[in-house]
Amino acid sequence: ELAKQKLTGKSMPISSFIVDAEKCADLKQSLKRDSSFLSTNDVAVAAMAEVLPGRTTMMLKNMRKRAPGMDAHLGGNHITLVYGRFAGDPVAVRKAVDVAAE
User: 68: which DSSP letter?
Assistant: First the structure.
């Protein structure tokens, strides 16, 4: 519920929602800290991790153009699993999926 309120400004129960771009931009700016970039997905994952049960969140990371020999032209799903404690921390999400953080 908190994630929905943060991203949409609404508190009604919904199963899908549209992110308010202006609110999300404000959140990204205010939560950025030492990160030069935060995506909307970083904010959404951190918000969902804050309200879902459990302390550890798992997500997939695209490895195309990030691992040796996995160029952009290769077919297939080149992914790896990343996990961490991302509740309320979009910077931690960004560091987990960022190329420079490897």
Answer: T
